[in-house]
Amino acid sequence: MKPIFARGISNQFRLTLAIVLSVGLMLANDRLEPVRQSLSSLLSPIQYLANVPGLVLDWSAETVATRSMLETQNKELLRQQLLMSERLQRFEHLRQENQRLRSLLGSPVHMDAKKMVAEVMSVASDPYHHYVVLNHGSDSGVFVGQPVVDAYGVIGQVVEISKLTSRVLLLSDVSHGLPVRNTRNDVRLVANGTGVLDEIELRHVAKSTDIRVGDLLVTSGLGHRFPEGYPVARVTSVLKDDGQSYANVIAQPLAALDRIRYVLLIWPEDDGDSAPVLEEAKP
Prior knowledge:
Layout: H1 11-27, H2 29-99, E1 115-123, E2 131-134, E3 147-149, E4 154-161, E5 166-170, E6 177-182, E7 188-196, E8 199-206, E9 216-219, E10 231-239, E11 246-253, E12 262-266, E13 278-279
Parallel strand pairs: 1-13
Antiparallel strand pairs: 1-2, 1-12, 2-5, 3-4, 3-12, 4-5, 6-7, 6-9, 7-8, 8-11, 9-10, 10-11
């Protein structure tokens, strides 16, 4: 019959065995070096495999951080591009004024207008109306009649607002009219939409009016709706029929109305701050 509590190896024997093994390993340390190197070589792939999850996490974190940084930089560059393009439009107006040796002291053009970048959320699905919806509304200070431009020229004006969105009527819409000025000779005209995105017309232009293909049309400032000096269109066709009282003048908008994504909302200078304010739209 086996005892209930079996007696194991004594502690003294275990201690003696540990001491003997320790002394033996210290004496054989140099001879065991090749064995350790071989074992290390065999275990190296396992070490690499163990590091794979950490490397994958580090790469993923770096990729996400890099993409986020690139998106941030892209938005900042776009904001700066829109601001610089808007200022270049004004500089073009001032340059032409200086060429004619006109005094700029009384010019209504001011560079310190309040501006806000907005993003197009949707476009009109009705082929007979040209408008886009922006992601800013009355909560951002947008108002009916507010002028809207992009990096190349005038887009249109705000015709309807809600708290978070606003609707912009494009200058190509048949119901849109805009006072313009020929930069070559200061002739003042009215540009009307034709229902075609890349075409507007100048109505009631006398055949004796000095207007040529290639003339640049800018906002005249009349009506106090659009500030003076923003590029609108360039004349592409001038037809003078002897049987008609007026010339048929067609111009092409400088803004790419069929592929706009970001625009600038412009505030009147007398309502804005003394320093330019530019806010970035949040999608």
